[in-house]
């Protein structure tokens, strides 16, 4: 579990990073209630200056190496109109705005309004702010808010990513860009598409605020809210986000996901659902994780597994593990295992399922039900052919009972039991070692007529239409036959008989029922026996 601890620690770092980014990593200007003082736009240079054609005394035409200054901002162009009355200008060709020594804006045409400090640049616009470059044809720059934005398509590029959208804005102060409508972030390792996105050009962290897809060679990410570090490819995703594995066969969804794409590790918080579409297995829990590199999954806290083949099995346990070894899938369940399938139900302390041999193993006080049959022992192994039960083995202290009604039970007891199935129903049971049997002869209405009791090293029940059709003993056994009127309670049941039907899952929802074995029904501690040849 060392890897799990390390990754859990990384998740805590993710959360801490998110808090830091939220509260400290995005500097904000304090709001000001005082609008900036209105100042005049000045002409610093022009090769020629003249009044406009109509001799309007407020409008001047300037040509050649034109330079304007407004406060600390300089504007350059080939020619311009200056309107002294409105304190505005129009600039043409080779237009450039310089603000300080970091912000430069280029374009073919500019409208600038000195009173509102608003610049409208058009055609072939390029804005440079240190490592950030923005391209568009429709660009407005609000100097009061120090906010630049485009509204008819544009692109922002930095040292790592290329972002495009229909609408975008950028703050040179906070280094935060906002994008809306057809947003696309292209990174050498992945492509992000979204409806809306915030991007911090300093930290290279994209904050997801709308439906978003992140696609790469490592899989897909779907999220409506969260953040994604485009350098480390670590992320924290909220609101039922989903990660699709590299081979496109597994998805993991949860209320929150801590995802490290480079390590292929996803940690899930709240209503996790891991779906393997190839093996047709779903694993759920309130907490879990998936390690793609090692193909290892973990789920706990209301953990559930669904195997959705032709006849689905629903299983609940405290903890579930799923891993792949040499293309073999192995599933383990621990503590309070309960499962339901239409033809098979069971409870036990722990369980192991292996896809290489299609073998399901139940450990520690396992109880299995099939139709009217109940089987118990130290260990139960169930062999499937595809999804159909083919055979099961009950190892050590085996006990099988079949309920005829609430009073009468056919019983078979011994060391090891093998049961064979056809179309989901038992048709043969073989007890090996110290076999004991109680069974009833029935009339045509299935009413018990007499009880037969026998013992032998090997006992075989042949079953047809859920009734015992034939019995074989090896070696031959003596038999006691008792008519029903002569039955006494002490002869109706073999030693260790317990009807555990009160523990039986009744449906797929009942696997979550809190059931406890009655104190008097708990099997006593048993000395380990040598392994049988069936083990």
Structural write-up:
By secondary structure, the chain is mostly beta strands. Helix content is 5%, strand content 61%. A hairpin with a 4-residue loop joins strand 26 and strand 27. The N terminus and C terminus are likely disordered.
How do you describe this structure in short?
The protein has 535 residues and is mostly beta strands. 5% of the residues lie in helices and 61% in strands. A hairpin with a 2-residue loop joins β7 (118-129) and β8.
What is the overall pLDDT average? 89
Measured between the Cα atoms of the first and last residue, the distance is: 30 Å
Please count the beta strands (DSSP E, at least 2 residues each).
36
What structural category arises from helix and sheet content? mainly beta
Strand content: over 45%
Q: Approximately how much helix is present in the residues?
A: under 10%
Question: What about the largest sheet?
Answer: 36 strands, antiparallel
Which of globular, elongated, flat, extended, rod-shaped describes the shape? rod-shaped
List low-confidence stretches.
1-5, 8-31, 530-535
Any idea what the radius of gyration is? 38 Å
Our count of helices gives 2
List keywords for this structure.
36 strands, 535 residues, disordered N terminus, mainly beta
Topology:
Blueprint: H1 2-23, E1 42-45, E2 48-51, E3 59-70, E4 73-83, E5 88-99, E6 103-113, E7 118-129, E8 132-142, E9 147-150, E10 154-157, E11 162-165, E12 167-171, E13 176-187, E14 190-200, E15 205-208, E16 212-216, E17 219-223, E18 225-229, E19 234-244, E20 250-260, E21 265-276, E22 281-291, E23 296-307, E24 313-325, E25 328-341, E26 344-354, E27 359-363, E28 367-370, E29 373-376, E30 379-385, E31 388-403, E32 409-422, E33 425-442, E34 448-464, E35 467-474, E36 479-483, H2 489-492
Antiparallel strand pairs: 1-3, 2-3, 3-4, 4-5, 5-6, 6-7, 7-8, 8-9, 8-10, 9-12, 10-11, 11-13, 12-13, 13-14, 14-15, 14-16, 15-18, 16-17, 17-19, 18-19, 19-20, 20-21, 21-22, 22-23, 23-24, 24-25, 25-26, 26-27, 26-28, 27-30, 28-29, 29-31, 30-31, 31-32, 32-33, 33-34, 34-35, 34-36
């Amino acid at each position: 579990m060392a890897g799990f601890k390390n990754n859990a620690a990384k998740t805590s770092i993710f959360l801490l990073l998110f808090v830091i980014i939220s509260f400290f990593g995005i500097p904000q200007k304090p709001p000001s209630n005082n609008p900036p003082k209105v100042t005049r736009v000045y002409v610093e240079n022009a090769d020629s200056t003249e009044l406009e054609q109509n001799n309007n005394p407020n409008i001047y035409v300037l040509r050649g190496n034109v330079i304007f200054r407004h406060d600390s901002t300089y504007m350059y162009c080939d020619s311009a109109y200056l309107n002294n009355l409105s304190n505005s200008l129009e600039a043409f060709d080779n237009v450039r705005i310089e603000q300080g020594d970091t912000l430069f804006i280029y374009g073919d045409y500019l409208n600038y309004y000195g009173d509102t400090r608003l610049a409208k640049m058009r055609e072939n616009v390029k804005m440079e702010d240190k490592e950030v470059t923005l391209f568009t044809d429709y660009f407005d720059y609000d100097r009061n808010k120090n906010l630049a934005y485009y509204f008819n398509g544009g692109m922002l590029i930095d040292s790592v990513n290329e972002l495009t959208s229909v609408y975008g804005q950028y703050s040179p102060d906070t280094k935060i860009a906002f994008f809306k409508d057809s947003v696309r972030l292209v990174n050498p390792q992945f492509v992000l598409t979204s409806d809306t996105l915030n991007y911090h050009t300093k930290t290279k962290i994209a904050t997801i605020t709308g439906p978003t897809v992140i696609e790469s060679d490592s899989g897909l990410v779907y999220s409506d809210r969260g953040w994604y570090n485009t350098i480390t490819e670590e992320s924290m995703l909220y609101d039922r986000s989903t990660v699709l594995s590299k081979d496109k066969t597994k998805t993991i969804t949860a209320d929150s996901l801590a995802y490290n794409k480079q390590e292929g590790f996803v940690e899930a918080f709240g209503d996790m659902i891991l779906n393997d579409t190839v093996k047709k297995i779903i694993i759920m829990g309130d907490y879990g994780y998936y390690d793609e590199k090692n193909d290892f999954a973990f789920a706990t806290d209301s953990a559930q597994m669904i195997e959705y083949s032709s006849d689905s099995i629903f299983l609940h346990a405290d903890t579930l593990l799923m891993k792949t070894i040499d293309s073999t899938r192995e599933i383990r369940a621990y503590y309070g295992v309960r499962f339901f399938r239409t033809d098979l139900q069971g409870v036990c302390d722990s369980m192991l399922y292996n896809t290489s041999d299609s073998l399901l193993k139940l450990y520690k006080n396992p109880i299995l039900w099939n139709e009217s049959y109940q089987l118990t022992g130290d260990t139960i192994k169930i062999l499937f052919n595809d999804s159909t039960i083919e055979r099961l083995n009950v190892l050590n202290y085996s006990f099988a009972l079949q309920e005829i009604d609430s009073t009468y039970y056919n019983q078979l007891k011994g060391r090891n039991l093998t049961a064979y199935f056809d179309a989901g129903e038992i048709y043969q049971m073989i007890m090996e070692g110290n076999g004991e049997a109680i069974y009833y002869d029935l009339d045509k209405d299935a009413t018990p007529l007499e009880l037969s009791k026998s013992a032998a090293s090997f006992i075989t029940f042949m079953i047809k239409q859920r009734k015992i059709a034939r019995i074989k003993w090896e070696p031959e056994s003596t038999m006691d036959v008792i008519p029903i009127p002569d039955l006494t309670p002490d002869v109706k049941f073999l030693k260790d008989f317990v009807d555990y039907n009160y523990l039986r899952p009744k449906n797929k929802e009942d696997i979550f029922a809190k059931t406890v074995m009655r104190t008097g029904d708990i099997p006593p501690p048993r000395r380990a026996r040598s392994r049988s040849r069936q083990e």
